[in-house]
Amino acid sequence: MNEKQDLLQMLGQVAVFSALSEEDLRHIAQTCVLHTYSAGEMVFFEKDEIASVLVVYAGDVAVFKRAADGREQILSHLRAGEIVSVVPLVLHQNACHAASGRAATTTQILSITPRLFEALCAKNAAFNRILLEHLAGKLEQLSELAASLSLQSARSRLAAFLIKHADQPRQSAGITQEEIAAEIGTVREIVARLLRDFSQLGWLKRERQRLILINKAALEEEARRW
Predict the structure, then answer these.
(1) How many Å apart are CA 141 and CA 139, to the nearest integer?
(2) Alpha carbon 179 to chain centroid, angstroms
(3) CA-CA distance, 26 to 15, in Å (whole number)?
C-alpha cells in the first residue's frame, strides 16, 4: 500500500469527512498534505491569512489568544476530525485566523486547498450539515467559557479544571501552573495560591508537576459555586 492509499484510509476515519464519497476522499488524498507537529510547536498564528484548510487528523491543538503582557487564554482544544478556524473560513473571503494554535501533544494536521474545500461545500449538503454542527459546537463552547470567566471565581474554575483533567493521559506527565492559568483565565500566582489552599485542605496532593486528587467530592462542590 503506497502513501496515498494509506492517506485515503486515514481520511475515511475522520468524522468530518464521513459524508463524502470515495471519489471525494480520493481527490482529497491526492491533493492534501499531512503535517506533523511536536508538542509545543506552533501550528498557526493569529491574524495570519488562512492559506489552506487545516483539519486535525490526530493529536490536540490548543487555540489561544495572547495579551500584550504575554498572558494567554486558552479558548478551546481541537482534536481529531475538527477543522481549524472554521468560523472565519466559512464566513469570510481572504479570512485570517482569529486566534493562534499550538500543538499540545504530537499532532498531525491535514492541509487542504481552499478551492477543494469550497467545491465540497458547494455540492454536498451532508458535508455542510456536519460543518454547521461543528460551528454550533464551537459556539456552545465559547458561550460556556464566557459564562465561566464572568460568573465563576478562579477558585471554582480551578476546581472544575482539576476534576476534568485528573484522569487524562497528559496529566500523568504533569502540567505547569502557567498552563493551568492559561486554561482557566487567571495568572500563575493565583493558581499557585489556590493549589496550596486545596493541598492544605486535604483535597489534593502535589508531586512535582503531578496533581493527585484526594477529595474529589469537595472539589466538585467547589466547582459548582457561582
Answers:
(1) 5
(2) 14
(3) 16
Burial label, 86 (beta-carbon count in 10 A; 0-12, 13-18, 19+): buried
Condensed to tens digits (0 to 9), the pLDDT of residues 47-65 reads 999 888 899 989 999 999 9
* pLDDT tens, position by position, 73-110: 999 899 888 888 877 777 766 788 989 999 999 999 99
The torsion region of residue 163 among left (phi > 0), alpha (psi -120 to 50) and beta comes to alpha
Q: Hey, what domains does the chain have and what are their CATH numbers?
A: 3-138 (2.60.120.10), 151-223 (1.10.10.10)
Grid coordinates belonging to 39 = 508538542
Nearest to 63 by CA among 52, 55, 74: 74
DSSP labels, 19-71: TS-HHHHHHHHHH-EEEEE-TT-EEE-TT-B--SEEEEEESEEEEEEE-TTS-
